[in-house]
Structures are given as C-alpha cells and as structure tokens.
Design brief:
285 residues, alpha/beta, single chain, 33% helix, four-stranded mixed β-sheet, 16 strands
Length: 285
C-alpha cells in the first residue's frame, strides 16, 4: 500500500514538474512574431502576408519607425503607401529618439499590432534608441503579441549581435567584404529580438557571402542568416519560414574556433542551406 502511494506521489510530482516547465517555456516565448525583410522591392503578396500576420485587417494599427533613414519623412511616406494601397489606412510614422520620445508614443508602441522599422543605416537606428524606453517598449510589444517587422537596415537591427556593415581594416565601405579574415568584421549591439542568429540583408543580390562567413567564423555560437531582396523570414518562437520571391542562406559553423593562417580564417565544419519560399528552418543551432 505504501509503495502504491509513493508511486502515485512520484507520478504527480513528475507531472507537476512537466507542467511547470511547459508554463515557464510559454512565459519565455514571445506571443508576437518577427517579419524580417532583406530589402529591395517588397512584393504585394509579401506585404499582404505581413498584414495578415499582424491582424491589421481585424483592427489595431501599425507604427513605422524611420530612424535608420537619412530622409525619415520619405521612409514613412513610401512604407505607408504600400499599406494604403493594400487597403490599410491605420498606419502612422514615429520619428523619435531616446531624447525626444513622449510617454504617449511609448504607450502607442506597446499596444501596436505592427511595428515596422525602415531601411537606411542600422547604426543610425541604434544610436537613436540605444537601450532606452523605446527599446524596452518594442521588446514589451513583441512579448505581448505585436509583429515587429523591418527591411534592410531594419532587418539587421533585429540581431542581438548586429552587423554594422563596416570593416575594421578597410574603412572605405563596400557592399561585400574583400576577404574572410580575422579581426576585420565590425559588430555592435542590435535590438536583440533575435538572439541566436546574425541577420544580413540584400544578401544574394549584393554577394555578401564574405561578410557573413566572417561573422559566423568569429561568432561560431550563432547562425548566419542571409536574406535576399524581395524576401523575408517570418519568425515565430524558434522557427523561421521563408516568404517572398528569392532565397535565404543559412550558415551554421559547427567548429568552436576558426583556424587561422596569415590573418585569413578557415572553417572545417560549416554547413550551408539555400532555402526557398515556404521552407522552414530552426533558429536553434
């Protein structure tokens, strides 16, 4: 009899632990989604998918954050124009910074159905918001169910470890890197909505292989995700789906450290996937 009671108590304990783990996992998992666009043209079907995922046809509103752009008013105008063309009028632009943001704007960010970060310069965007209340409001919104979207620079900022686009050894900017070499790629703190991968954009169109290879060599704990133009990834939890017209490249460096010779980097255990629209992949290594 005692043995039966003990077994029952142990079973209840195990069930309770499993339930607790499930509850904790669901608390940690954001209720929102990420819609990360590789830049270039944004096909109507891709924008429609963003509208659907955001639930904008069922109500709510969207906010465009144009702080990456040197012409923020134009960035808002052209982004908003696509939503208006699709029949969505409830989209506004907030050109804000850590120093200028109002409490009412922070409240609006936290309750938005969609937050959309424009293209431009990812460093400019992060300089504007830093780790301010804007940063916190975006994270809070994502946790509570908002779809956070970004294109081009707005895609790069999604990573916690963010590609700046700069080379330490070659100050003159180029779309791609000259070599795959040590201590050359410049990284910075991004928005941090993606913690397990480094996002790069305009990827195939601008042949940015060398810089993403450099990134995964220097940061082997992270995946490298290169999103081409007119293409996006839809991130829900740890899973990403390819959306749009082109491809997404996923690099996984399974070596602890790169090899090095004369400053050039080598990787002996690197896997590369070329994924098409509709295909899914895990953001967990």
């Amino acid at each position: 009899m005692k043995g039966a009671i003990l077994s029952a108590m142990l079973l209840l304990s195990l069930v309770s632990c499993q339930d607790k783990a499930t509850i904790e996992e669901s608390i940690d998992q954001p209720k929102g989604a990420l819609f990360i666009i590789g830049g270039g043209k944004r096909p109507a079907a891709m924008i429609e998918r963003l509208i659907t995922e955001s639930g904008l046809r069922e109500g709510g509103y969207g906010i465009i954050l144009p702080m990456s752009s040197v012409e923020p008013d134009s960035a808002v105008f052209y982004a908003k124009k696509q939503f208006t063309k699709a029949g969505i009028d409830q989209v506004v632009g907030f050109n804000i910074s850590a120093d200028t943001v109002r409490d009412s704007q922070l409240d609006s960010l936290g309750k938005a159905a969609m937050i959309y970060i424009s293209g431009g310069d990812q460093n400019k965007f992060m300089a504007a918001i830093g780790k301010s209340a804007i940063y916190e409001s975006i994270h809070q919104a994502y946790q509570q169910g908002t779809v956070v979207a970004g294109t081009s620079a707005g895609a790069a900022v999604m990573s916690e470890v963010m590609i700046t686009g700069n080379e330490k050894k070659f100050p003159e900017y180029q779309d791609t890197f000259r070599n795959i070499e040590a201590n050359n790629i410049e990284m910075a703190d991004g928005l941090g909505l993606v913690k397990t991968a480094i996002i790069d954009q305009h990827f195939i169109k601008r042949s940015r292989y060398n810089r993403l290879l450099s990134a995964v060599a220097e940061y082997p704990q992270l995946l490298g995700v290169g999103i081409d133009e007119a293409t996006a990834i839809l991130v829900k939890g740890d899973s990403a789906e390819v959306v749009g017209d082109s491809q997404v490249i996923v690099m996984n460096n399974q070596s602890d450290q790169p090899s090095e010779l004369n400053g050039k980097l080598g990787m002996k255990n690197l896997s590369v996937k070329v994924l098409l629209a509709g295909e899914k992949f895990s953001l967990v290594k």
